[in-house]
Design a protein that fits this description.
The complex is a heterotrimer of chains A (254), B (160) and C (391). By secondary structure, chain B is mostly helical. Helices cover 39% and strands 0% of the residues of chain B. In chain C, strands 1-2 form a two-stranded antiparallel sheet. Classes of the chains: A alpha+beta (254), B mainly alpha (160), C mainly alpha (391). The A-C interface holds A 76-79, 82, 84, 96-100, 102-103, 125, 134, 137-143, 158-164, 166-176, 180-182, 238, 254 and C 1, 7-14, 16-17, 74-78, 80-81, 83-84, 86-89, 91-95, 97, 179, 183-186, 334, 337-342.
């Protein structure tokens, strides 16, 4: 029974059965190394991300999925995305205790001797794909840039490895890949989102705290999300115009 | 090496050297800058294609549901309906594209389930959490909970 | 994690810019400073420093030739560095490096040296045989007109080049300060004072370096030191240093007064991780002591020998202090996390690409080049063989 269904589906029937997004995905998956999807118009999209701090449980699924999907080195200090845990203790609220053990890759251990009344929450971090990105501004050779659909990418064939962009990024989201000696960072899973899939981190998130958003699409849930939640970005005073929008971002978060 | 009679002759030679250098630079630049540079912005347009032509590891829930209809059925109104299959079963794009063997591995149930459900400060109210020390003893979580329908019906004590 | 205190973003564990990037501003600083000293004589007609004019130019050239080396060694892909000439991103200060460097090297320094030495080069060409003859012929571009009109033209052009060279030198080193000063993500770096402070400390270091070289080379050649020259240089060093120190203190006082969020993190860093390099080396031994010694020589009368010793001591300490300043800016700016919640540390290795041994080699190389330049372009005007040649 299963065998028949499979062979039917991989035949002509798939286009009838599948929704538009899934059919694009199916094609891409079947290809193994997906080529440029023929029906992707970059000007029709403006990619962003929403992160709901209230829903993050610190599972670390996103960090693991990102490392697998994007072949990120396992060494310390190389993260395209990571999760931070904040503890705001009642006796010293001015000084939050923050930790991110291996970027949250292996989850978090329960806190020993947690004083009652401590506020604890998890904050996933990633490249904010800023509209006025300081990293793009300082690249001397045009190796990092913002795509027409709003994703900040790195051209690995032109990057010199000068690390100026790593210095200029206020969010600490860039690192040097020791295998290519070029800079690397979150690409918003560009190879996935241009095929109708969502990002690996959003896919893996068990609570739906991380969601890919397309600001140019009128049907995208992001518009309702922004209307009904108190939304923040990181370091707004630097006017980088980040496109990762957090719900319930505590003022203590750096 | 004839005598240079013009008193400004050496200036002309310097100017020629600089001029040749400039010309060489223009020629080199023309041949080395990729033709698709600057098309969309100050970058090589081909970099967009490079960024898209990468292998996919996670297929996404939509793709799993195409074949595994029985699982979808069993997950109706489950607390795990929204959780992507690959959160637990790992990256499955290869599996979905036809390489059905070897079958995907899952972590040991206790380790896997606890990665989300261990009782810890910072999780939102109402999120099911257990302290492994006093829940379930040494049993794997799957001894009592069906992962696709994890909630145990309280009246009968049986898995739903 | 070892070396980490408090919380840092996970990608901040390792420093991005190493000791090589500390060396680069130090070297270009020496270039700019040496050139400014040379221009004192050429443009501002301070005749007293004439004995060091050519030495200063050659010193500037030697250091300028070595300056790109630490940058190349630091890059992940040095073979792609030519891209900065092919597709320079005009919004990036670093992209301007290639052109500013090339302009300063070719259109300012090389041309100025050429026009100043042309007469000697032609005469040497005529008086040599064999390989040396071909070499000097090429250097003169096989043009041998050294008539009075030609030399007068050279003099005027040289003067124009030096005048143009002064803002060019400002640009060469000022932009280095702008590279760090314009990074809004880093509060230790982000200040409009950065290019100014960098430039002034460059002038201080360049003057000190030429002064020390003059004393050292005079000792090697067993020639008397022109004390008027040395005193004048030391005076300019003193005043430049006062201006530099005042501006650095202004920056510090301003930060302490405004006391924004970053201050606590920076203050803590200065008192712990940067204590030796900032408080002891840069401010104490590297600024206050040499300023004090120089002030003494201005206020009191000392014998020639004692003044020389004081100048040499002050000069050496000055160079240590300016190097420490570069270290504190570059390395210091990366020791604290951009979250302001923690610190990492800098582990400088010994013998791989970006560490101590190459750094030392890069520091020694300019002196080797200078020794070669001194042979090709003898700067001294008190050599009997030279006088013979020029007759």
């Amino acid at each position: 029974m299963d065998q028949d269904r499979r062979s039917f589906l991989t035949g002509a029937g798939k286009f009838i059965m599948l929704t538009g997004a899934a059919s694009l995905a199916w094609d891409a998956v079947l290809n193994g190394t997906p080529d440029q999807a023929p029906n992707y118009d970059a000007t029709a999209h403006w990619w962003a991300m929403t992160i709901d701090v209230d829903r993050c449980i610190g599972s670390g699924n996103c960090v693991r999925a990102c490392k697998i999907e994007n072949n990120v080195p396992d060494e310390p200090g190389m993260f395209r995305t990571w999760v931070e845990r904040y503890q705001i203790r009642p006796d010293d609220p001015e000084h939050p205790i923050v930790d991110s053990p291996n970027g949250g890759h292996d989850g978090f251990a329960p806190i020993k001797d947690l004083p009652p009344g401590t506020k604890v929450f998890f904050v996933p971090k990633m490249c904010n794909h800023c509209v006025h990105s300081p990293c793009v501004q300082v690249c001397p050779v045009g190796a990092t840039f913002e795509s027409p659909d709003g994703v900040v990418l790195v051209d690995k064939s032109r990057c010199l490895g000068c690390r100026y962009c790593v210095q200029a990024c206020p969010y600490g989201c860039r690192y040097i890949d020791p295998r290519t000696h070029t800079v690397d960072k979150c690409t918003l899973c560009y190879h996935r989102i241009t095929q109708g899939l969502t990002t690996a981190c959003a896919e893996a998130c068990p609570t739906g705290a991380r969601r890919l958003a397309d600001l140019k699409s009128p049907k995208d849930p992001v518009h309702e999300f922004m209307r009904t939640h108190k939304v923040h970005v990181l370091k707004p005073q630097l006017a980088t115009r980040p496109k990762v929008y957090y719900n319930a971002l505590d003022g203590a978060v750096r | 090496m004839g005598r240079e009679t013009r008193y400004y002759g050496h200036l002309i030679r310097v100017a020629v050297v600089f001029g040749l250098g400039f010309l060489a630079f223009v020629i080199i630049r023309h041949s080395l800058v990729p033709t698709d540079f600057g098309v969309y912005g100050f970058y090589r347009a081909g970099a967009l294609d490079d960024a898209r032509a990468l292998p996919i590891s996670f297929a996404g829930r939509d793709v799993c549901e195409v074949c595994h209809v029985a699982v979808v059925e069993s997950q109706k109104e489950s607390r795990h309906t929204r959780v992507s299959c690959e959160s637990c079963h790992g990256p499955l794009a290869k599996h979905a594209s036809g390489e059905f063997n070897p079958k995907p591995k899952t972590l040991h149930p206790r380790e896997l389930c606890l990665s989300c459900h261990v009782k810890m400060a910072g999780k939102y109210d109402g999120f099911p959490q257990v302290d492994p020390a006093d829940h379930g003893g040494d049993f794997a979580c799957t001894a009592c909970h069906q992962p696709h329908q994890p909630k145990i019906a309280m009246e009968t004590g049986k898995k739903k | 994690m070892p070396g980490v205190e408090g919380f840092i973003y996970p990608n901040e564990v390792e420093l991005q810019w190493s000791v090589l990037i500390v060396l680069y501003p130090f070297l270009t600083g020496l270039v700019a400073g040496a050139f400014i000293l040379a221009s004192l004589e050429r443009v501002f007609n301070v005749a007293a420093v004439r004995p060091t004019y050519r030495l200063a130019l050659l010193t500037a050239l030697a250091f300028l030739l070595v300056a790109p080396l630490p940058l190349q060694m630091h890059l992940g892909h040095p073979e792609r560095s030519f891209s900065m000439y092919l597709t320079p991103h005009r919004e990036s200060a670093m992209a301007m490096f290639g052109f500013v460097y090339l302009w300063y090297l070719m259109a300012v320094l090389v041309l100025e040296i050429w026009f100043d030495y042309r007469r000697e080069l032609v005469l040497t060409w005529r008086a040599s045989r064999g390989l040396k003859r071909h070499f000097y012929g090429a250097l003169t571009l096989w043009s041998d007109n050294i008539s009075p009109e030609a030399l007068h033209l050279d003099e005027r052009i040289g003067r124009i080049i030096t005048i143009v060279g002064i803002p060019s030198a400002f640009l060469l080193h000022g932009y280095v300060g702008f590279i760090s000063g314009s990074v809004k993500a880093n509060p230790w770096w982000s200040t409009p004072m950065m290019p100014v402070v960098f430039l002034l400390s460059a002038i201080v270091s360049g003057i000190a370096a030429v002064m020390l070289l003059y004393v050292f080379l005079s000792w090697v050649r067993r020639r008397a030191i022109d004390m008027l020259c040395l005193d004048t240089i030391a005076t300019y060093l003193f005043y430049a240093f006062i201006i530099d120190f005042s501006l650095e203190m202004l920056d510090l006082v301003h930060r302490l007064y405004e006391a924004d969020e970053s201050l606590k993190a920076l203050d803590f860093m200065v008192h712990t991780r940067l204590f030796v390099s900032q408080i002891v080396l840069q401010i104490g031994l590297g600024t206050l002591v040499p300023l004090g010694l120089l002030a003494l020589t201005q206020l009191m009368r000392f014998s020639d020998a004692r003044r020389r010793r004081l100048y040499v001591t002050a000069g050496l300490l000055t160079l240590v202090g300016i190097f420490a300043m570069r270290w504190n800016v570059v390395i210091g700016g990366q020791l604290f996390s951009k979250s302001f919640l923690g610190y990492t540390s800098y582990k400088m290795g010994f013998a791989t690409r970006e560490v101590l041994l190459p750094a030392l080699a890069i520091m020694v190389l300019p002196f080797i080049i200078l020794a070669v330049l001194l042979r090709i372009f003898p700067p001294w005007e008190d050599e009997p063989a030279k006088a013979e040649l020029l007759r």
